[in-house]
TrEMBL record:
5'->3' double-stranded DNA exonuclease which may also possess a cryptic 3'->5' double-stranded DNA exonuclease activity. Functions in DNA mismatch repair (MMR) to excise mismatch-containing DNA tracts directed by strand breaks located either 5' or 3' to the mismatch. Also exhibits endonuclease activity against 5'-overhanging flap structures similar to those generated by displacement synthesis when DNA polymerase encounters the 5'-end of a downstream Okazaki fragment. Required for somatic hypermutation (SHM) and class switch recombination (CSR) of immunoglobulin genes. The lineage of its organism: Eukaryota, Viridiplantae, Streptophyta, Embryophyta, Tracheophyta. GO terms for cellular component: nucleus. Interacts with the MLH1-PMS2 heterodimer via MLH1. Interacts with MSH3. Interacts with the MSH2-MSH6 heterodimer via MSH2, and this interaction may increase the processivity of the 5'->3' exonuclease activity. Interacts with PCNA, and this interaction may both stimulate the cryptic 3'->5' exonuclease activity and suppress the 5'->3' exonuclease activity. Interacts with WRN, and this interaction stimulates both the 5'->3' exonuclease activity and cleavage of 5'-overhanging flap structures. Interacts with RECQL/RECQ1, and this interaction stimulates cleavage of 5'-overhanging flap structures. Keywords: Acetylation, DNA damage, DNA repair, DNA-binding, Endonuclease, Excision nuclease, Exonuclease, Hydrolase, Immunity, Magnesium, Meiosis, Metal-binding, Nuclease, Nucleus, Phosphoprotein. Residues 81-147 form the XPG-I domain. This is XPG-I domain-containing protein.
Length: 301
């Protein structure tokens, strides 16, 4: 797909996940458990002679570590393809590039780019370059849910209410119910108050965690290519004194080294790059399917 984009005059920028975000510690534990379970299933399928099912489970069991991503980065350097390793989440990094008009669109399979406020997203792009386009300025034209009158804030709160990586949904709360509640009551504070009066079991810390989820979508720390430094996704409120949950601050030299693929985003130590890095095609295929692309359109001629 990178070659397809370049052939049509599109400049791709691959964006990789970096270090772990404190807000997602529980989610990371669940994913690690899922990888372990898939590895066990893969071995069972392999022992039973079901190679296709084993292959599918092995793929789901792969943990894309920074060292594996480094192999792809070496190939990207050779092919002169741009890339950025985010200090924390690729989703936030891509949104920063999008809202600051450093790219024209984002290609991804991750719907979290919508609550992040990404301007233009292309989902499900196939090998022919066809996909589904989302533009945040055209919310009111959505056919599945009536989003007339929805602000960006209401859309964000609806997505969090229905469940996200930063906060699991309440029992029985799906997208349609979350949409109906936000459409009627306009804000998460009123929705939570309504749910408590309706005898819905709302955990004591839910409202506080909801606010933290909002801040994670709005103010997470990212890398600014212009200043080559770590910044917040948008201007942070003055009353937010403790912000490590948005991704701890990093020295400029470290965050730049991470962005360039020279420093491990987990250990914060420089990579030891051998003279020759073997490229494992299977792993590269898996990485490409999970990596996130930014596009900057370039006209030819």
């Amino acid at each position: 797909r990178v070659n397809l984009l370049r052939h049509h005059g599109v400049k791709p920028i691959l964006v990789f996940d970096g270090g772990f975000l404190p807000m997602k510690s529980e989610q990371e534990i669940k994913r690690a458990r899922s990888r372990k379970e898939n590895l066990e299933r893969a071995r069972e399928h392999e022992a039973a002679g079901n190679s296709r099912a084993a292959f599918d489970c092995y793929q789901k069991a792969v943990d894309i570590t920074p060292k594996i991503a480094l192999e792809l980065i070496q190939v990207l350097k050779q092919e002169k393809v741009d890339y950025i390793v985010a200090p924390y989440e690729a989703d936030a990094q891509m949104t920063f590039l999008s809202v600051n008009k450093l790219v024209d669109a984002v290609i991804t399979e991750d719907s979290d780019l919508i609550p992040f406020g990404c301007s233009r997203i292309i989902f499900k792009m196939d090998k022919f370059g066809q996909g589904v386009e989302f533009q945040i300025t055209r919310l009111e034209q959505n056919r599945e849910l009536d989003l007339n009158g929805f602000t960006k804030q209401m859309l964000l709160e609806m997505c969090i209410l229905s469940g996200c990586d930063y906060l699991p949904s309440l029992p029985g709360m799906g997208v349609k119910r979350a949409h109906a509640l936000i459409q009627k009551l306009k804000s998460h504070e009123k929705v939570i108050k309504h749910l408590r009066y309706s005898a819905v079991s709302v955990p004591p810390q839910y409202e506080e965690n909801f606010k933290k989820a909002i801040w994670a979508f709005q103010f997470q720390r990212v890398y600014d290519p212009a200043t080559e430094d770590i910044v917040h996704l948008s201007g942070i409120p003055h009353d937010l004194s403790e912000d490590d949950f948005l991704g701890p601050w990093l020295p400029q030299a470290v965050v730049k080294g991470i962005a360039l693929g020279e420093i491990d985003p987990l250990t914060k130590e420089p990579f030891e790059v051998p003279a020759f890095l073997p490229v494992h095609l299977l792993l590269i295929k898996v990485i490409r399917s999970r990596s996130l692309l930014f596009l900057q359109m370039e006209r030819r001629g």
